[in-house]
Amino acid sequence: MIEINNLLVKYKTTEIKFDDYKFMKNKVSVISGRNGSGKTTLLKSLSSLIEYEGNVSVNGEITYNSQEPVLFNRTAYENIIYPLIIRKLDVTLYQKTIKEYSEVLDIKHLLDKNALKLSSGEKMKVSIIRSIIFNPDIVLLDEPTTHLDLESINELSILIKKLKNKITFIIVSHNKTFLDELKDEEYKLGGNHVYSEIN
Ligand SMILES: Nc1ncnc2c1ncn2[C@@H]1O[C@H](COP(=O)(O)OP(=O)(O)OP(=O)(O)O)[C@@H](O)[C@H]1O
Ligand SMILES: [Mg+2]
């Protein structure tokens, strides 16, 4: 499903080396490690958003949900249907799912609001629905819980559990309760895999 071999990312003054790994299909994999250990770097490599050396083999459509999601200056609903539009999918076929996901994450009342005027937690929820609406095979969630309240974190767990039989999730989060609830396997970053040279 997703396999990494000899993965190495070189920034200007930092090099990050990742242990070989095979992520399991239709499971929730958690990437753990301290700040700066390379979690975001790994997710961006898996989704080919940055350059890397080595091999990343991905089977299927993959999408990355950023730690700081960027929404467009349109309604929450228009943001959510954007991936459907660019894939020329019939939006009418997704209305039920949009309703269902927005109910689970409790943002149904916000769908007609301008996305840029939403709170940070609300933006994250819109962005997560935008990431999953087109049924990608693999969804990478970078710290999805940061701005979410306890109830919302619980609602997100419910949604992920519901979807994990058809979507492979790879999640970065520092929220222990959230992870304990969802985690099928863990990929730990640590030790001496980050080499920094300070000029
Ligand atoms: N664009 C960049 N240019 C140079 N160095 C970078 C860049 N992005 C990340 N780094 C460096 O690579 C290392 C890993 O960063 P990364 O963002 O992957 O960490 P992280 O584990 O996601 O941290 P956090 O928990 O704070 O989100 C850090 O030392 C960081 O300074
Ligand atoms: Mg990060």
Task: Please explain how this structure is put together.
- The protein has one domain: Rossmann fold (3-Layer(aba) Sandwich).
- The protein is of the alpha/beta class and 199 residues long.
- It contains 6 helices and 10 strands, in the order ββββαββαααβαβαββ.
- The chain starts with a strand and ends with a strand.
- The strands form 2 sheets. Strands 1, 2, 3, 5 and 10 form a 5-stranded antiparallel beta sheet that branches. Strands 6-7-8-4-9 form a 5-stranded parallel beta sheet, sandwiched between helices.
- The longest helix is centred in the C-terminal third of the chain and has 14 residues, at 150-163.
- Adenosine-5'-triphosphate binds at residues 11-12, 14, 33, 35-41.
Keywords:
199 residues, alpha/beta, Rossmann fold, five-stranded parallel beta sheet, 6 helices, 10 strands, binds adenosine-5'-triphosphate, binds magnesium ion
- State Rg: 17 Å
CATH architecture: 3-Layer(aba) Sandwich
Helix percentage range: 25-40%
Percentage of residues in strands? 15-25%
Helix-strand string: EEEEHEEHHHEHEHEE
Largest sheet features: 5 strands, antiparallel
